[in-house]
Amino acid sequence: MTTTSGNARRGIIEPWLGSGWPIDLFEAKTFFEKKGVFFCSRSECGIGNRRILRDPWQLNCGHRVCKECYDKLGALPEAQQLCEACTKELFDEGHLNLDRKLRLESGHDFLLNKDGMSYDAAPPSTSQQPSLADEVPTRVPFKIDFSIAMKDKAVDREISRLLVNCPYGCDTPAKLTLRTLERHMEECLERWVPCEKCAEVIKYLGIGEHRTKCCPFRIVECPNKCGVAGLRAKDLAKKKVQVVKHLNEGKRMDQHLKSIMTKLHTTTTQSSSGPATVISQSQISDLQKRLLTLENQSDRANRMLMDKVHHMTPEMARGLLENVQLAQRNRQDLNDLNSLFKTVAQDVHKLTSYEGAFCALTEKISKTENETAELLSRLETLSNIRVAEIEDQKTLLNQLQMTSYNGHLLWKITDVQKHRDEAATRHSIYSHPFYTETYGYKMCARVFVNGDGSGKNTHISLFFVVMKGEYDALQTWPFQKKVTMKLRNVTENRPDIVEMFRPEPSSFSFQRPKNEMNIASGCPQFADQAHVFNPDNGFVVDDTMYIEIMVNNESTAGLNSPQHVYDNED
């Protein structure tokens, strides 16, 4: 396992800390030496720390410094705000920086006046150009003017494209630049990462092994499989003595538990026929204290007896010795009983915890039952809704199947007796709609089984109703078609009860409907009840009767209505 610490670790993990980039971070082919300085010298920080510029700023003298160095210079007293690179050029035995030489050779250089301010000097003539040796002694350190300093974005872009080596030394085949370095360092397999538990810095490839085998804060199990969890590796080494004691106690407690469980089982068997006894924790503690007192008294008595044995006769000594042996056996019994009480106390404690768990489980089961009951109730409600929707669809489908479009209605009425019983509340029955043609008049029949109006309680009343249809705008109004109403006799060769009428054009019953239905018109004394409900006459069979309505599609304009026409105002 490779680890590191201190400043060395800090330098490996974060090589970019501090002002400027370290030169050894870049590939060797990025630079080459020329007269003791870097050819790409304008990439160096002007402070003289021999590091490559990071976030470069250009001063008024032309030198460049890192942003961090720039901020440090601004924090100095005004008298010390001097360009270090200029100072070195002026006072380092007359040797000038290559960039400075190039500026002089190109004919432009920054000079100082008496007040220490810079200006751009014009190129001197060849005959008057002074030598570098004559120029240096006349210079003074260059004072920085922060008001005209600016960030050098062009140099920053050039530096960001320079090739660099991985600080972790990985052999990645990809070409790294400063622009891609930071992302690479976050993904490099050779990078150093801290352990989240012990803060030790480990190579990324070895962090998994460190967490499972080397970290002192990792959680380990007892080596003897005692079942105790949550032990840390470093704590296990420090508490070896306590662990050994814990193991020994575990073994003894196991033996005691087996013995006591046997005794408790025997005691339970013996007392199963008697009343139940509840042992509280306080009672067990009292018994343990009393046992401890008896043990101490027994020890003192044994010591006193042993001291007096030497002063007794042999017969008396033998008798006392037997008493001592008996007392020792009693002491052993007391010890066993004490262990039994301890075990019982532990069992009571366990039962208490089990009781709490059982209560929690019972509460959870009750909650689950309530949730289940609620879900079942919701399902039942949804099921009832679906059943009602299905019934509605069945009713609609039956109506569609029974709807005729030829002006002919055959109406089967079941449960006739039930309708007669309900007729006391003036109950009437409507048939399903029928049409004279596909896009014709919409109509239905209405019957009072126990009669209505002049036929109440004596006759069956049958009426014809004009309904509001989808194509009323295309029809001729008022309604003028002949209507035939029949009560069918289902016995062979028996006549039907038949009534016919022609609509009265002035009646509101045959005008274009404004509501869902017009006022019913028909025969309040259509058929005598005594005659219809006589079983021998064949009109009602199996508690069912049949009514037939026929509308003649030929126009009946100008014909008078028959005698049995009745406008029902209900």
From TrEMBL:
Gene3D superfamilies, per the entry: Apoptosis, Tumor Necrosis Factor Receptor Associated Protein 2, Chain A, Zinc/RING finger domain, C3HC4 (zinc finger)
- GO CC list: cytoplasmic side of plasma membrane
Taking the record's annotation, the residue ranges forming a coiled coil are 284-337
Q: Where are the transmembrane segments?
A: none
Q: Which GO terms describe its biological process?
A: apoptotic process; regulation of apoptotic process; regulation of canonical NF-kappaB signal transduction; signal transduction
- Extract the GO molecular function terms from the UniProt entry: tumor necrosis factor receptor binding; zinc ion binding
Task: Enumerate the InterPro entries for this protein.
Answer: MATH/TRAF_dom, TNF_rcpt-assoc_TRAF_met, TRAF-like, TRAF1-6_MATH_dom, Znf_RING/FYVE/PHD, Znf_RING_CS
What are the alphabetically sorted keywords of the record? Answer: Apoptosis, Coiled coil, Isopeptide bond, Metal-binding, Ubl conjugation, Zinc, Zinc-finger
At the top level, the lineage of the source is Eukaryota
Domain (MATH) spans: 406-551
Show the Pfam families listed in the entry: TRAF-mep_MATH
| Protein name (record) | MATH domain-containing protein
From the broadest rank down, the organism's phylogenetic lineage runs: Eukaryota, Metazoa, Spiralia, Lophotrochozoa, Bryozoa
